[in-house]
Amino acid sequence: MATTDVAYSNLVANGNLVQPAGTTLVAAPTNNMRIVKAVPEYTVLRVSNTDDDTALTLTVKAGDNPPALAAGQGDLAVSIAFGTVRFIGPFESGRFIQSDGSMLIESTTTTGTITALRIPRSV
To answer: N or C: which terminus of the chain carries fewer CB neighbours within 10 A?
Structure first.
């Protein structure tokens, strides 16, 4: 399975951030996306669906137990209507962190972008 890394775009405390371009979605089951060295409690995903007539489902995969003791709650699946943008998160490490410190994400389509926004700890 191919994995596409999604880099963080850091939000700036008492400042601003120009809208990032984002990473093009990749579709499961042959591909997935990953945030390396994830900090789920400070992570918000911005997902756009640029398709003209089809909703997509974005799934944040449950983590490994251990370290994700609440992984048994399962994946988080969010439906995103065509032509819209959704903000998803922040998340719980206890449910979504993988044993390698990453977060795994899957999409049902490639028509859109994803941006991982990192909330600064100073707010």
So the answer is: N
